[in-house]
């Protein structure tokens, strides 16, 4: 394990009051000895998708679904997954729609990136895998998806880890302008709202993702091999369509599917989440600055703890895998 990674993890654990010796997996192999890729990838039909997913741990273990964000993929959990599997959890890491080996079953299906559609994909995956209830953990798109399931289908969520807190979208609220500094951080949403932006993204998807990785996590010194491992997932034929629709839908410049209208009305109301939750922020997040978690505290009606992880940016599970895995273990005990 290189010195910088060791210092990063030590700082992250100190930020939440944990020493390495207190971790149940502290004696595991060094990070360099962990799998460099999540493989093999399994496929299962679930809802309107053929979902690609990685699974680790005992089949009868407590299920944990680890949900990735954009512009990332399942390899955000390349170190988290084996840590949790070693503790007896059944770990499921799916490629979200438009990513990796996940494919639509129908060529005619609407390439829809709205939040309700992505959440229902995970419900369908749980049904296909015969998982009635799971711990849900994620960041970015993945945290939003976990939030939605916990809010609308609480019987499916045992507990939750959510980076950046409560992320359910309200499109009317999204129409309100933010400060110039805050708007600057979301520049790509406005770029994607244009035809020029879509064409530019289509032509430069890897360069675009690399730029966002750097901007979102300014202290994360990832290497080219780490980036390339995830960037392969962006070659999915539906990737551009899903990403563009997701951000256009958020800004109300693209319509969603009417079949989700009732769900979106429920989500726009800001439903409460009763599941035990740990919310996490990285204090070096270039797009979502760390907070004390109080602004959205009322949305969580069950036990909740907020943690700020030092030296970490937006891709928190990949930058601080032990702190993220520890949050999953801790929230399981709430």
SSE diagram, text form:
Blueprint: H1 3-15, E1 42-46, E2 49-56, E3 63-67, H2 80-85, E4 90-94, E5 103-104, H3 115-128, E6 134-138, H4 141-152, E7 157-163, H5 171-174, H6 180-185, H7 187-192, H8 195-203, H9 205-216, H10 224-231, H11 239-250, H12 261-268, E8 277-282, E9 304-309, H13 316-319, H14 321-332
Parallel strand pairs: 3-4, 3-6, 6-7, 7-8, 8-9
Antiparallel strand pairs: 1-2, 2-4, 2-5
Give a summary of the structure in a few sentences.
By secondary structure, the protein is of the alpha/beta class. Helices cover 38% and strands 15% of the residues.
Describe this structure in words.
This protein has helices spanning 3-15, 80-85, 115-128, 141-152, 171-174, 180-185, 187-192, 195-203, 205-216, 224-231, 239-250, 261-268, 316-319, 321-332, and strands spanning 42-46, 49-56, 63-67, 90-94, 103-104, 134-138, 157-163, 277-282, 304-309. The chain contains 14 helices and 9 strands. A hairpin with a 2-residue loop joins strand 1 (42-46) and strand 2. Strands 1, 2, 3, 4, 5, 6, 7, 8 and 9 form a 9-stranded mixed sheet that branches. It is of the alpha/beta class and 334 residues long.
Give the end-to-end Cα distance, rounded to a whole number of Å: 32 Å
Instruction: Give the overall shape, derived from the CA principal axes.
Output: globular
Biggest beta-sheet profile = 9 strands, mixed
Report the order of strands and helices.
Answer: HEEEHEEHEHEHHHHHHHHEEHH
Q: How many strand units?
A: 9
| Parts with pLDDT < 50 across at least 5 consecutive residues | 1-35
Residues in helix, %: 25-40%
Radius of gyration: 18 Å
- Quaternary structure state of the chains depicted: single chain
Structural class: alpha/beta
